Amino acid sequence: MSGPSISPSRSPIGKGTTRVTEVYSPESGSHPTTRLSQIRESIREPAAEFLGVMVFVMFGNGVLCQTQLSRNASVAATTFGDYLSVCFGFAVGLALGAWVTGGYSQGHINPAVTIAMATFRRDFPWRKVPGYILGQVLGGLCGAAVIYGNYIHAIDLVEGGRDIRTVPGTAGLFGTYALPYMTAASAWFQEFLGTAIILIVVCALGDVRNRNAPPGLAPFVLFIMMLGISAALGMQTGFAMNPARDLGPRLLTAMVGYGAPVFTFRNQYWLWCPILAPIVGALGTSSVSSTPIALAGVANGTSISISISMSIPLPVGTFLYDLVFYGGADSILSKVYVMLSSPR
Known about the structure:
By secondary structure, the chain is mainly alpha-helical. It has one domain (45-340): Up-down Bundle (Glycerol uptake facilitator protein). It contains 12 helices and 4 strands; from the N terminus they run E-E-H-H-H-H-H-H-H-H-H-H-E-E-H-H. A hairpin with a 2-residue loop joins strand 3 and strand 4 (302-307). The termini are far apart. InterPro entries: Aquaporin-like, MIP, MIP/Aquaporin, MIP_CS. The chain crosses the membrane at residues 50-69, 81-100, 131-152, 187-208, 220-241, 269-286.
């Protein structure tokens, strides 16, 4: 069987000059290196993050618009969906977003996860962080823009006109806003509680002594996890847990007429709850255990790694799992046990 048939050929250009060209054969399965291919390679990972977050936000914001806007009699005679529909929409979006990006960018789909990986993982350099985060936020913005354009007439009917936009009101169809009775501490704890449970599940999936998800089913595990956490604990804050999922759509709403109130709402709620809490939480979580928060999968015969697309506000989930189950050497508790048991 012959090998790759991409071979150089020489053709005269002028006196003493030879041009080297590459002859490509479809049998080889690869393409010659070109400037375009180099550009594609350099932006492939950020572009994958862009697409993953865009898919996630389109499903999430889309189901919110359909269920909430259809409650208005001027939009629809009957309601299309309920809160369970919202839970399913976000769960499907997360699973598909992770599947789309997993083979190219490890499926972070979350700036908090990206920052944590750069901080605590040697195989993910800091030079990739700006591109990843830019792709993620732009993906959230574009995903929200597609859904806003799709439902703009229904939004006009609910608001009472194209020049009327209210915050939270219909702005809550895109960004996250805590319910009025929630205090700052309550909103923070809401994010803490739900995502601590998420981390316990993730730790179990990453524990080789436990039962790992079968190859290729990691997105389905993410689906189940997102469905459960949103159904049980998502009502009061909108379960952001992802800066790009909130900031991208929030930027979109600021651009299309909602204005500054999307940022000034409740003393910059957008900053300290859906952005800083996930980032600080992801860093705190990663510092507790050096085990990569990733789920192995297989696509087209190629091993991929799909990093968990949520972020954890405090390391309680890891602590509880390590305290009761995990015995790996990478656990901080294992290191403490070794220090205490070593002879002095």
